[in-house]
């Protein structure tokens, strides 16, 4: 049998070879992590492992190797004391040997224990409640499953009962949305893993458990209410950085070959992309370029409380029955790995939670999503009425994300602020209710009402990779350009003072520098040049010309 069908056999072989009785369980890997890292050291090899999701859970056998791309929703589940190893007598020859149970639910049915389980070597497991990545686009799901669809059906063995839902609805940010959940169990506490982190887990599929409540250390709590949640015994848990494009490197970062490719082709791709986005915003090419720059924005530094890299955007569209919101939603789902579009109506603001709340467990909120998730919010749906206390708190949560990229988690005795990196794009009739970094009033082009041509699948593949790669590309601000820009700034202020016109402010300068970074990256350039700086300054002037409302 292959390691995918029977990973526990491989683990037992490594245990028998490398485990020494005098070693402690919390400090010894006995080669398992390294062995599986070497086995699956490329994306192509990883794609051979079946994906664990709502579709495959009924076909995958217990104790098979699975791959689960997910978001950490809660890190505060109770710890579990479990068997690390026991002495068993194996039929038919009655051989006595020490068997490892670290990556399984416990002794197999065909194991005859030589000693009482309580006398075995014990292990302490940590657990995370994990959910399928919120807002993940359909093209990402299809990419993930394309290489393994035929493999799932080929696996035989004991399956999990899929007759009941395997989720706790209040632990997922989008109410009523289909999703999947699993408890990921690890044998060591990884302090680098936190809530809303996007991770890829490679592990052994375990039985479904009911989550224990209170201070219990046991997940197998039949008295607990709610559905049974599948478990995954993690062998590898990789944090996937930022954007979530499945075609990037193992850690979700762009590779050098990708950067070089888009450095050469970026100008052409950029032009085609702006044309495609313009078809969604009534032919407005300035707005389309700003939307593209918005797609490329991410938080890259937080020095002394400042938040560098954010670029929330408001498109003002006062036309009646405008198609901009639905058109943009479709474009974003076609291009971006993680998107959530919703109407920002009074009912949604008043009846839902946008922020997580914790008591006995962490209930999710709409903004508890992974970094790199793009939100499209339709304020044209906001009718007259009153925002209740919950609605006001929700609006403040959105404002905090736009201004500071932080989200408050509300607990009974205190609130904790967690850093976020969520893209916010607002469509409104007038000024947005939420402070934004950039706002423009749409100016329809000559072909505003003409349907644009849809890109081919090949073009979409190229667009998606371009956005993901350049969004995560490293960028440098040359000292020579910094000095030139500083001198220009001082000269412009002197000239404005003499002429009696309004002075360019430090905030204006900071906005232009931020815009220039995105302009440079959109051309596939990782450093600022004079040409891109002048382009950014020109854009800033056009934005100002359309900024007043």
UniProtKB/TrEMBL annotation:
One of its GO terms (molecular function) is chromatin binding. InterPro entries: MCM_complex-bd (IPR019140). Keywords: Nucleus. It is found in: Nucleus. GO terms for biological process: DNA-templated DNA replication. One of its GO terms (cellular component) is nucleus. Pfam families: MCM_bind. This is Mini-chromosome maintenance complex-binding protein. It comes from Dissophora globulifera.
């Amino acid at each position: 049998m292959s390691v995918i069908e029977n990973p526990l056999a491989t683990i037992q072989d490594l245990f028998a070879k490398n485990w020494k009785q005098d070693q402690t369980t919390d400090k010894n890997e006995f080669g398992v992590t390294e062995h599986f890292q070497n086995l699956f050291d490329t994306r192509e090899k990883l794609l051979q492992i079946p994906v664990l999701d709502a579709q495959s859970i009924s076909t995958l056998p217990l104790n098979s190797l699975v791959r689960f791309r997910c978001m950490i929703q809660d890190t505060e589940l109770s710890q579990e004391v479990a068997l690390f190893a026991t002495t068993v007598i194996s039929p038919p020859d009655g051989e006595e040997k020490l068997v490892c149970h670290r990556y399984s639910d416990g002794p197999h049915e065909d194991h005859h224990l030589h000693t009482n389980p309580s006398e075995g070597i014990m292990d302490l497991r940590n657990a995370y409640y994990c959910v399928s990545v919120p807002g993940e686009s359909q093209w990402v799901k299809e990419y993930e499953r394309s290489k393994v669809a035929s493999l799932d059906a080929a696996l035989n063995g004991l399956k999990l009962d899929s007759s009941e839902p395997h989720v706790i609805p209040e632990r997922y940010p989008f109410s009523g949305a289909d999703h999947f959940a699993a408890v990921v169990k690890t044998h060591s506490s990884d302090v680098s893993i936190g809530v809303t982190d996007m991770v890829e887990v490679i592990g052994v599929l375990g039985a479904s458990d009911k989550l224990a409540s209170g201070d219990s250390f046991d997940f197998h709590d039949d008295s607990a209410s709610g559905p049974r949640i599948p478990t995954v015994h993690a062998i590898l848990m990789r944090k996937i950085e930022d954007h979530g494009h499945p075609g990037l490197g193992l850690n979700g970062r762009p590779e050098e070959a990708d950067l070089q490719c888009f450095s050469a082709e970026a100008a052409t791709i950029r032009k085609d992309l702006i044309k495609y986005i313009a078809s969604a915003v009534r032919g407005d090419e300035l707005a389309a370029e700003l939307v593209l720059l918005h797609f490329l924005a991410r938080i890259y530094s937080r020095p002394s409380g400042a938040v560098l890299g954010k670029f929330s955007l408001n498109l003002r569209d006062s036309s009646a029955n405008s198609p901009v919101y639905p058109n943009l939603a479709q474009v974003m789902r076609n291009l971006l790995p993680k998107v959530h579009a919703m109407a920002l109506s009074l009912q949604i603001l008043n009846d839902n939670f946008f922020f997580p709340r914790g008591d006995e467990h962490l209930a999710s909120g709409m903004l508890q999503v992974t970094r790199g998730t793009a939100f499209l919010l339709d304020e044209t749906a906001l009718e007259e009425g009153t925002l209740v206390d919950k609605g006001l708190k929700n609006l403040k949560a959105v404002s905090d994300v736009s201004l500071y990229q932080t989200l408050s988690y509300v607990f009974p005795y205190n609130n904790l602020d967690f850093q976020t990196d969520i893209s916010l794009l607002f469509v409104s009739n007038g000024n947005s209710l939420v402070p934004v970094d950039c706002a423009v009033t749409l100016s329809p082009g000559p072909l505003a009402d003409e349907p644009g041509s849809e890109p081919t699948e090949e073009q979409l593949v190229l667009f998606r990779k371009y956005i993901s790669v350049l969004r995560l590309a490293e960028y440098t601000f040359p000292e020579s350009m910094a000095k030139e820009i500083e001198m220009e700034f001082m000269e412009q202020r002197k000239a404005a003072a003499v002429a009696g016109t309004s002075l360019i402010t430090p905030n204006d300068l900071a906005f232009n520098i931020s815009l220039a970074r995105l302009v440079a990256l959109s051309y596939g350039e990782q450093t600022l040049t004079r040409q891109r700086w002048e382009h950014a300054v020109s854009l800033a002037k056009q934005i100002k010309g359309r900024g007043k409302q």
